[in-house]
Write a structure and sequence with these properties.
Length: 235
């Protein structure tokens, strides 16, 4: 089974193709360009290099958030378009779960994605018998409140861009109990989304092009501003 996977949750654009447990190709770019400019050319280039056509893909997987509102919409719209045209199933995978999946063999993994205003998108995961298990599913939290919540764990591995932003604060609080992902592990990777997507598909957890939707976990800036204006106006 050939699987095409995308992740545009953050500034990183990443796409991958796997087949029967083997990675055929993966492209990742972290540049000052919009996903709308680079995503489709990346996919086309990867397909051409592998001599694979979109109609050869059996399953599409995509990171559905949390993360950048615009990035999530672009990734979801792209994968939904492919699934619609070729009438293939699609699996949505949590960005946070995908980041945790980058860090095997660590007892407790806490991915952190910057949500601004001292907040992070996060989740708490553990590895049990080589299977990633969710202790707490993705949520958004103030970084200081989150660190208090994690105090009881003897050892924690942090990953994601939020781990880089708040590394000093985390290190001051946890000392040697805190470990951090290496460069190749701390960014979103399409191959992790693909592997998780295959697991979900085999368990019957998949969608079609119509039902797939991003998971934002919070209102967009425009929605928050609208709500704030309504509160000021007494509505």
């Amino acid at each position: 089974m050939k699987v095409l996977s995308l992740d545009t949750s953050t500034l990183m654009s990443t796409c991958a193709i796997i087949e029967d447990g083997n990675l055929l190709g993966e492209y990742s770019l972290n540049r000052d360009m919009s996903h709308s400019e680079r995503l489709v050319p990346m996919i086309k280039s990867m397909l051409a290099e592998l001599d694979v056509k979109l109609e050869d893909i059996d399953l599409y997987t995509v990171a559905i958030g949390p993360g950048s509102f615009t990035g999530l919409r672009i990734g979801a719209a792209t994968i939904k378009g492919f699934a619609h045209v070729f009438n293939k199933p699609v699996v949505g995978v949590s960005t946070i779960e995908g980041l945790a999946y980058n860090m095997p063999y660590n007892e407790i993994v806490v991915p952190l994605l910057d949500a601004r205003r001292n907040r992070v998108f996060t989740g708490i995961y553990s590895w049990e018998k080589e299977e990633l298990t969710s202790i707490e599913k993705p949520f958004v939290e103030d970084i200081d409140i989150l660190l208090e919540k994690l105090e009881s764990y003897p050892s924690i591995c942090f990953t994601g861009d939020g781990a880089k932003i708040y590394r000093e604060k985390i290190s001051e609080r946890f000392g040697d109990r805190a470990r951090f992902a290496k460069l190749g592990q701390e960014y979103c990777r399409a191959v992790s989304i693909a592997e998780l997507g295959v697991k979900k598909y085999k368990n019957g957890d998949f969608q079609d092009f119509y039902s797939l939707v991003p998971e934002y976990l919070r209102m967009s800036q425009a929605e928050r501003q609208k709500e704030e204006r309504a509160e000021k106006n007494g509505n």
